[in-house]
């Protein structure tokens, strides 16, 4: 059934999150000392699920598909600054799903902490920024949305105010994030100076025509006099935009904030940042470089930056450094933080497995998108299991997990699914998403990327297996009693595990959705 909606309704997934955050702040203003975790967590989960329901309804209702193909068209807002297409909705589904799992799990994790309403409100405000970023069609809009993601994230990392590690991690994240935002903003200014526009389609038109453009009544037009685009300035601007995006996705060499932030933050926030925030960074990268900076026109100019070569280098370096660093860790949470860096390298294949003319973009980008969706569930579930272990007072090191499978078999079985799926074994959707990425590298003959993907997946199996071995095979090193099984955390972990397994038979459908979204883009 096709649903025709007004353009503003296309932002319903983001509006649902924003309204929920405002409701939480209203509840807190009425009763500033409330510690009714069930109420606050329940409102947050309902708001996240409402956002997910809107996004799923729209993506299957034909939103973002041209009317000539049986869809309802693409909602365009604010003179083309926001575009709610199939790609935007795909990423809104990822953000809403991760937010729902994190807010559900947090009902137990933050029960004994103050400022619970602020905690949930900050999570939902950051998720609102991620949803808006998914629909951004301009560098200016993208920058504002990115800051809406970043500012609440800094506070969330430092939420455990009496924990020195949490406060230190929040401060480091803030300082490095401020620098990256400045670099990104300067890159945007250089792109604007070179092309005369900030909207993605306008930038592409300027590059392809070789002349500076302007936007008049929503239409891209050549400026009077049509000065030539200075490719050298544009190249520096593109390089600085890459730096800003690479920080957000924790790609090498801009990854050093991630292990500190993920380890110091509350475990549910580590899950949120490493999954939803990473997805938001990648949708910005996909939109910017697929639409605004057409690789064929840049390469043919002979003067501009070949950004797909830069992403090839970033992908290989991020895979190797992230996974080798993870293999040397002695703390489970820090190992997962470096593992998250390694997975950023896998997803970068979506922008790296291209030819000089841009061939293979639809295949490689859809592979990256499909992996991000699967990764959202299996990585979030793994970090939530760590939150469960922290709730029980289990230590941070591998040996502290010894024998845990005998006391909590269901949760440990879910963790085993997450870890083996992250490694690429056919126990979850991670196997098919990695195979899809591998196929994308072979499609364009990117043998170095294919080899890096295989080698690093094998290496990741080594360090993931250390956790599985500790839980199921090793004998406990000391007395440990588990007296309670928190409902929220357990429900979130089991839900993530079920979806990870169901993505095995359902992966073809996910990959076809991603491929259609890229083709329409």
TrEMBL record:
One of its GO terms (molecular function) is NADH dehydrogenase (ubiquinone) activity. One of its GO terms (cellular component) is membrane. Keywords: Membrane, Transmembrane, Transmembrane helix. It is a multi-pass membrane protein. It is found in: Membrane. The keyword Transmembrane applies. One of its GO terms (biological process) is ATP synthesis coupled electron transport. Pfam families: Proton_antipo_M. The chain crosses the membrane at residues 6-27, 39-60, 87-107, 119-136, 142-161, 173-194, 233-258, 279-299, 305-325, 337-356, 368-389, 410-432, 444-464, 485-507. Signal peptide: none annotated. Residues 136-460 form the NADH:quinone oxidoreductase/Mrp antiporter transmembrane domain. Its main location: membrane. PANTHER family: NADH DEHYDROGENASE. NCBIfam families: NDH_I_N. This is Oxidoreductase.
């Amino acid at each position: 059934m096709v649903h025709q909606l007004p353009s503003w309704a296309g932002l319903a997934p983001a509006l649902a999150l924003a309204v929920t955050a405002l409701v939480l702040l209203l509840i807190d203003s009425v009763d500033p000392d409330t510690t009714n975790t069930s109420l606050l967590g329940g409102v947050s989960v309902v708001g996240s699920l409402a956002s997910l329901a809107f996004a799923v309804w729209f993506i299957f209702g034909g939103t973002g598909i041209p009317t000539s193909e049986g869809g309802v068209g693409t909602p365009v807002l604010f003179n083309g600054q926001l575009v709610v297409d199939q790609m935007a909705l795909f990423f809104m589904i990822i953000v809403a799903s991760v937010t729902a799992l994190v807010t559900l799990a947090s009902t137990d994790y933050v029960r004994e902490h103050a400022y619970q309403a602020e905690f949930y409100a900050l999570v939902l405000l950051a998720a609102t920024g991620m949803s808006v970023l998914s629909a951004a069609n301009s560098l200016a809009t993208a920058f504002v949305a990115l800051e809406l993601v970043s500012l609440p994230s800094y506070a969330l990392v430092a939420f455990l105010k009496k924990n020195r590690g949490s406060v230190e991690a929040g401060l480091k994240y803030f300082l490095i994030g401020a620098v990256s935002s400045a670099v990104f903003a300067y890159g945007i200014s250089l792109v604007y100076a070179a092309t005369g526009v900030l909207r993605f389609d306008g930038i592409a038109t300027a590059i392809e025509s070789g002349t500076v453009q302007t936007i008049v009544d929503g239409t891209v037009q050549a400026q009077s006099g049509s000065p030539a685009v200075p490719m050298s300035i544009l190249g520096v601007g593109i390089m600085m935009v890459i730096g800003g995006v690479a920080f957000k996705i924790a790609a090498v060499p801009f990854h050093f904030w991630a292990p500190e932030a993920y380890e110091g933050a509350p475990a549910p926030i580590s899950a949120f940042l490493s999954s939803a925030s990473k997805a938001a960074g990648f949708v910005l990268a996909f939109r910017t470089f697929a639409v605004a900076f057409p690789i064929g026109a840049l390469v043919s100019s002979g003067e501009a930056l070949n950004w797909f070569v830069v992403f090839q280098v970033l992908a290989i370096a991020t895979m190797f450094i992230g996974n080798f660093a993870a293999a040397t860790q002695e703390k489970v949470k820090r190992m997962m933080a470096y593992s998250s860096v390694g997975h950023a390298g896998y997803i970068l294949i979506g922008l790296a497995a291209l030819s000089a003319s841009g061939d293979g973009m639809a295949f490689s980008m859809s592979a990256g998108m499909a992996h991000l969706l699967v990764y959202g569930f299996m990585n979030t579930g793994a970090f939530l299991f760590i939150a469960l272990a922290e709730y029980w007072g289990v230590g941070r090191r591998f040996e502290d997990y010894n024998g845990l499978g005998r006391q909590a078999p269901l949760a440990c079985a879910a963790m085993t699914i997450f870890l083996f799926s992250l490694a690429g074994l056919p126990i979850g959707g991670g196997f098919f998403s990695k195979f899809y990425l591998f196929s994308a590298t072979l499609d364009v003959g990117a043998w170095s990327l294919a080899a890096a993907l295989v080698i690093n997946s094998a290496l990741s199996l080594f360090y993931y297996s250390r956790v599985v071995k500790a839980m199921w095979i090793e004998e406990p090193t000391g007395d440990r009693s588990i007296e309670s099984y928190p409902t929220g955390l357990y429900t979130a972990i089991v839900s993530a595990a079920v979806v990870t397994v169901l993505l095995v038979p359902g992966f073809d459908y996910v990959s076809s959705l991603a491929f259609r979204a890229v083709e329409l883009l």
